[in-house]
Amino acid sequence: MNDEIAAMTLLTPPERVDIVEVAPRDGFQSIREPLPTDEKIRCIQRLIEAGVTRMEIGSFVSPRAIPQMADTGALVAAFADRAAMRFSALVPNLSGAELALAEGIRELVFVVSVSESHNQANVRRSVGQSLEELARIVELLEHEGNACLRLDLGTSFDCPYEGTIAWHQVDDVLSRARALCGDLHLEVALCDTTGRATPYQVAEHFRQLVARHQGPRLTWAFHGHDTYGMGVANALFAIHHGATTVDTACAGLGGCPFAPGATGNTATEDLVYALNGGQVYSGIDLSRLLAAADAIAALPGGQTASHLRQVPRDRVA
Amino acid sequence: MNDEIAAMTLLTPPERVDIVEVAPRDGFQSIREPLPTDEKIRCIQRLIEAGVTRMEIGSFVSPRAIPQMADTGALVAAFADRAAMRFSALVPNLSGAELALAEGIRELVFVVSVSESHNQANVRRSVGQSLEELARIVELLEHEGNACLRLDLGTSFDCPYEGTIAWHQVDDVLSRARALCGDLHLEVALCDTTGRATPYQVAEHFRQLVARHQGPRLTWAFHGHDTYGMGVANALFAIHHGATTVDTACAGLGGCPFAPGATGNTATEDLVYALNGGQVYSGIDLSRLLAAADAIAALPGGQTASHLRQVPRDRVA
Question: What is the pLDDT of residue A262?
Fold first, then answer.
């Protein structure tokens, strides 16, 4: 019994966790009617005031396909003087990557799903075709010097069409992707696209993949949803198995009008609250973040899912 | 880096976790208008069909003070033939304990808060007076042979009046209580009464207390709420630091009409879902549990807070 407890008491918190605020991309995209650019700027401003230093600010994608993201360039320009901010943007293809770099984005997010069927549904390509596009983006980045790549591995735990995803399926796609990435600084995010992952599954996937993929320019992230109530637990289990970065959305903004019960990314304030309890540094001020969450929750058409916003404010600190 | 990861990959799931279903006590008590006894029986029946084997079925308390619990004896009688069920009941004092034993309850739950101010508010006694009452109950139990005691340490992490509670405050009350308990089989529950505990705080309290209090007849439980979104994470962190039992309420039934935003105990179905993901045995069938949760959510006047119930049913298994 003593041995067992000794082996189990290692949940000592890490010193810091990097949080990537994804409300401006995942969240704003989920609101059917595109938000006015100045509304977005006000929200982003509040997030920066709260201490957010990494943010997925939008996508460089066809404005016909996703009109909500059409003003991403304008948003980047509005915050061009924020040298301390690390903005990233999602790029679906080479031309999106070129646009993003031209606008001054140094961190490109490329998404490929582990499951063929979800990749087809999401980007209308096979996984192989997505990896070909990735190779083109990598070639572009290799000539850029200080740019880096975030690889979002969608459906790393569960696919809405194929069900549970095994870690070796993730390993397969990641191995093929890494073979293309050369010396690029790469952040790999295992994405729980559906929110259906459980903490032990998250732990196992990170454990297996971190053991198999190591390198000085490789870091790990977790991107999750709280739909099944696993949001905070999954993030913490990821952190204790190699993730140094977690994606969250302020106010839990997100959800999908076509998936009843689906919620947005785990709320940034819920994760920061958990981290603060272990004196884990995130750089984020919780009370200012809650002010940002209130502003985001007031956006017309947004669905939010935050626990902490429901708690009386004087009981949060 | 390798060493660090090796030290952090020990989140291997335990073989089993005991779940104590508390909806019939914490949950039904939260509904202002007492439920008809036959409604309660139908819900309890469904919970048993789902595989629940431990249940806090009610309280032996003044029916004037808490009319919602007046039929606890009738509920125990209705399930007297369920030899495999381990029913417990809350008893506030010696006469409640005598009533419970007379009705056939073998496991008595006694609550004392770690904070003086909450104990006064909750049971109108000082902690010292509660411990005197505990001594009388222990004396009664020592003559009973196969009876055992669950000690619920309220406000083990946070008090609504005094704020954060340090582990050594819990240690103090627990030490005084254990000195009274002799050879009794004792299950100690650290209760996050307000839901404000964080996973690292839960881990630290269990780590400190389990190290200081060991014995062949001592087991550990965690009782938590999901108000701050920490429910599942707190339960898992407790489990990985010595808790073998967790209290949860089907459908997350609970909340408090006087505390806006307060929610019930962590939903049983949310925890079972998390445990199933690690093949942790709880004995509970999730789809039957969700049927019970639907019945409980349909009770008039009940507030529920379950993530899993919001997910389309075909996406749960």
Answer: 65
